[in-house]
Amino acid sequence: MKFTKTLLTTALFSLSVFSTTQIAYAETNNAELVEQAILSDGEQLKRVMEAFEREEFDTVISLAQPLAAQGNVMAQSVLGFAYASREEYFQAFKWYQKAAEQGDASAQNNLGIMYVLGQGVKQDLNLAKMWTGKACDNGNPKGCDTYRMLNEGK
């Protein structure tokens, strides 16, 4: 009986030490993920914009991805810009399109420009006009300039 009790105590102690070690390991490995989960969307978006201003596009991408996947239009637009800055045009197009479809004027203009240049998508001047026209209608001055140039054939 004494041997069984000692064996059981040793096993429980080992199990608790092992569990604590695993938890500590998981906490240190996933600290950034846990922090992202705890932050409100507004706080997370603030961190995205701070990284964007510092032109830390890898950080922008890792921070904005979860928000963009949830449909946050600003995160989608910023994510598009970050990918375009890294010349990953297919990804940039994908995120600009999601933001543009939700009415983001900046994303609409950038999407139009991608259609003009054929970046991440086949060149299509009609779609370029459509998107830059929407950007202009939504108050984006650059969209108006691009739309005007496309219609003047420049």
UniProtKB/TrEMBL annotation:
Coiled-coil annotated residue ranges, if any: none
Signal peptide positions (record): 1-26
One Pfam family, short name: Sel1
Entry keyword set: Signal
Organism from which the protein derives: Avibacterium paragallinarum
InterPro entries (UniProt xref): Sel1-like (IPR006597), Sel1_AlgK (IPR050767), TPR-like_helical_dom_sf (IPR011990)
Protein name: Sel1 repeat
Top-level division of the source organism's lineage: Bacteria
